[in-house]
Amino acid sequence: MHMVKLCVGVASVEELESYRDERAHWWDADYGEDVHVHRTRMMPKRREEMEGAASIYWVMSGQIVCRQPILRLTKFTDAEGKDYCDIVMSRDMIRTVPYPKRPFQGWRYLRAEDAPPDVGANENGNSMEIAAELARMGLL
To answer: Which InterPro entries does the UniProt record give (predicted)?
Structure first.
């Protein structure tokens, strides 16, 4: 079981990579490791089956375009007593074959069989553009 989330305000994988170091400091979420942290409001009920086995699939500009392996899901309580879920992820951004995804709020579960495949090491920019166009047309 994976997680899919809109990457609001971020238009490209490169832009997400540039933010990854800043965000943990914004939320005072320094885990003392070389990780990427994203804070969300709700803790997944299926947490046990996700930790160390799932990825978060990022939606940018209406398409799933990359994923990051989830290392663990950690409870965080702020100074006002409000609980959150810190998604502690690997810093690795793994590009996927572009897959269309309509807007939604929060995050959603994504079954492994519904997740787009990773881009192979021998893929090039032209094949990614073609895959993105085929996905937009509903043929991929």
So the answer is: UCP032025
Neighbours of 125 (CB within 10 A): 7
The predicted pLDDT at position 115 comes to 93
26: closest CA among 106, 72, 84, 65? 84
Q: Which of 126, 124, 122, 104 is nearest to 57 (CA)?
A: 104
Q: Is 69:90 a contact under the CB 8 Å cutoff?
A: yes
For the chain (140 residues), the mean pLDDT of every run of 10, in chain order, is: 90 83 61 80 91 93 93 91 92 91 89 91 58 62
pTM of the full structure: 0.80
* Partners of residue 110 on adjacent β-strands: 2
Distance set, CA 31 to CA 15, 24, 25, 35 (Å): 22, 9, 10, 8
Please state, in angstroms and rounded to a whole number, the distance separating the CA atoms of residues 84 and 121. 36
In this structure, what token pair is assigned to residue 115? 């997740």
- Distance separating alpha carbons of residues 101 and 103, to the nearest angstrom: 7
